[in-house]
Amino acid sequence: MTDPVLIEELKTLVEPGKVLTDAESLAAYGKDWTKHFAPAPSAIVFPKTVEQVQAIVRWANTHKVALVPSGGRTGLSAAAVAANGEVVVSFDNMNQILDFNATDRTVVCQPGVVTAQLQQFAEDKGLYYPVDFASAGSSQIGGNIGTNAGGIKVIRYGMTRNWVAGMKVVTGKGDLLELNKDLIKNATGYDLRQLFIGAEGTLGFVVEATMRLERQPTNLTAMVLGTPDFDSIMPVLHAFQDKLDLTAFEFFSDKCLDKILGRGDVPAPFETRAPFYALLEFEATTEERADQALATFEHCVNEGWVIDGVMSQSEQQLQNLWKLREYISETISHWTPYKNDISVTVSKVPAFLADIDAIVSQNYPDFEVLWYGHIGDGNLHLNILKPEALSKDEFFEKCASVNKWVFETVEKYNGSISAEHGVGMTKRDYLEYSRSAAEIEYMKAVKAAFDPNGIMNPGKIFAV
């Protein structure tokens, strides 16, 4: 734990009342959505300015105090967990939209701006911020950048890194860098901006970000299609991609649907039940486009790839169809799921899922296993639900024992052990399955250049 004298010194660097050490605050701000590690920070500090962030980092360097960044705390890799007496740097008070440029379609945000706040701002300006996921109402832009957040629109719009025009960062040395200066074209050596995207705060803290916006989509329309087996989903994807520019293509199993319907606040999409479901979205800009979607649906039915389906006819129905997918993570949190967020190239998905499913079925015969994910970009979410009779520690231990086989399969398919949740602490011991030993050494060398004293979120991505 940090010396009380140092905490008193820390308090002089920010406004009064902006350093908390009470037990409730430590527990709340020391964790994220994972439940693998108990939070144990020594203090929470709330800077309001870039200068205050620099002062905190320089203080930490002087006294060799570890810092952990904290945003919306919706992460799923324990990247924002302070489990070893670190000082948590919360960006809740750096939450303003600072500037907007209509010509460049850019908006300047502080790191604590909530994703939904940016989405709403863009909508008010007649524009669109397309990075979207279930935690958009609480996740923050700084955290999104730190994990290179993806979500449900990646098939059309890409990951967070596609939308970062520029940023200001405070490095592990306390230096302030302005990266890329919002340029579209900039061929002047290394793009350090891209190093900080996905770095999970291990190189420094994002203190300002210029985000690009897009035109608003027109008449978004969703379809939910029931398929007789998983192998039918990929032909459905190809059929619709041949005819439409999809903005999303998701899938979930019948077990996931059971959990959602059990909530009682979302209606079933149609009466027929199916083992798997695909949810796709497109812009129905013309009547002809909607007709093309229906014709493709009929083609899929005739081929035996689809059992039944529905297409949204209103904004409310669109939202209800999306709830079938977006509510899954929140709904199953009751069962303390063990999560794997894995990916391969889209063409390898069917064989990859079959191999992983065989491993899981063999080793977890008594566990309930739920599959869902962003299958249009090759990202699968494997969720194993904890039985009531098992303690959390016993359950996680049983699941972790099979990780070696799961990740060996990921490696065999040249995939990723973490498609969009980051590495944090939950995946750091498995990094070698997605990165070579040489890559990891170069990554460590990059960290040492920006953070020579190792104070920036230590123990995340790779062990200290």
Automatic annotation (TrEMBL):
- Return the EC number: 1.1.99.39
Give UniProt keywords alphabetically: FAD, Flavoprotein, Metal-binding, Oxidoreductase, Zinc
Domain FAD-binding PCMH-type: start-end pairs: 37-216
- Cofactor(s) the protein needs: FAD
| Cross-referenced Pfam families | FAD-oxidase_C, FAD_binding_4
Key word Metal-binding present: yes
Q: Which InterPro entries match?
A: FAD-bd_oxidored_4_C, FAD-bd_PCMH, FAD-bd_PCMH-like_sf, FAD-bd_PCMH_sub1, FAD-bd_PCMH_sub2, FAD-linked_Oxase-like_C, FAD-oxidored/transferase_4, Oxid_FAD_bind_N
Q: Which domain of life is it from?
A: Bacteria
Which reaction(s) does the protein catalyse, per the Swiss-Prot or TrEMBL entry?
(R)-2-hydroxyglutarate + A = 2-oxoglutarate + AH2
One GO biological process from the UniProt record? respiratory electron transport chain
- A GO MF label: metal ion binding
Q: Which family does it belong to?
A: Belongs to the FAD-binding oxidoreductase/transferase type 4 family.
Share what the entry says about its subunit structure, partners included: Homodimer.
- Cross-referenced PANTHER family: D-2-HYDROXYGLUTARATE DEHYDROGENASE, MITOCHONDRIAL
Protein name per Swiss-Prot or TrEMBL: D-2-hydroxyglutarate dehydrogenase
Native organism: Pseudomonas saudiphocaensis
